[in-house]
Predict the structure.
Amino acid sequence: MFNRLIDNLLKEKNSFFLFGARGTGKTFWLREKLPRESILIDLLESDNYIKLQNRPQHLEEIIPPDYNGWVIIDEVQKIPELLNEVHRLIELKKYRFILTGSSARSLRKKGVNLLGGRALNYKLYPLTAKELGDEWDINTALKYGTLPSIYSRHKNQPKKYLESYIETYLKEEVLQEGLTRNLGAFSRFMEIASFSQGSVLNMTEIARESQINRKIVEGYFSLLEDLLIAYRLPIFTKKAKRKLITHPKFYYFDVGIYRILRQLGPMDFDPEISGIALETLVLQHLIAINAYYDFNYKIYYWRTKHGLEIDFVLYGENGLFAIEVKSSNQIHSKHIKALRHFKEDYKIAKLYVFYTGKRELHLEGISIIPVDLALRKLEKILG
């Protein structure tokens, strides 16, 4: 059991949602961390599902009248109507609920009651270097990602687990939830989308290659975001002087998922894929640390029409950060060209390069940090 950076949530006095992609460890974390007397209602269990689907009021009968512990409803998106009953019991009985699910967006799209602000929203992400502690190994993370099962139950067969994840958790969930009727087209789309990892999205090209209507492809990308298994990063344009690319960049949420979907062909260049994997691993950590420490940065990328690009730009009340990720053991002048130009437009920006070398360096006001070290102390860099 890893100590997660959300452990302090259990000190909350009020109900909350805990969202996260399948496999990030929501259920396991709750089972391990909560007192044994807590009430856990798993909607993946058919008996619970049938009873509460047919009669949501049965929820009140499950909870003892004077109960003051946590009531956990796992996979609440299976019965969205249940949230009305949860709302009623919070108001009437002052019960405390933890409600887990794969996506707040998918619930909102169904027009269900998200408790009117009476429950805060939190998310759980793949493991970070800080959470893994002594188990952290950047080479393992770059190859298999950081989903918890990779480091516990499926430590000896990580590739098989990831293949099963794609087949079971993603494709079957999409099919069972009725999110698409054409599983074959969606599976083909997921693989083709992996070739856009870390790249500016070209919807027309992806639609052509996958032989799927462009509007359907756009819907599929929204679906990936709804399930929290992909992100689209917008361009940073705060008072920019230069002409910028306007389309978002795409990333799957975990390195391991990306690498399983991104099959190598005979003409593929593996170091290029490894570079994208490194970029993805950094983004995973930026998103998780930003959320867990309540930094509240918005995360962007920056790219001009002349090809200058910075992988990640973070902007918020605590400042402006520009981060370049380089799969290189040495840093040359060409590696910091975009950062120099960014500094011309944004004088307040703090500039970083995360690279695969061993030494910390400072060059022209830019902090150059070994990526392994940077991921271990990311909360200090951003804080």
Summary: The longest helix spans residues 270-292. The chain has a mean pLDDT of 89. The domain at 7-123 is CATH 3.40.50.300 (Rossmann fold).
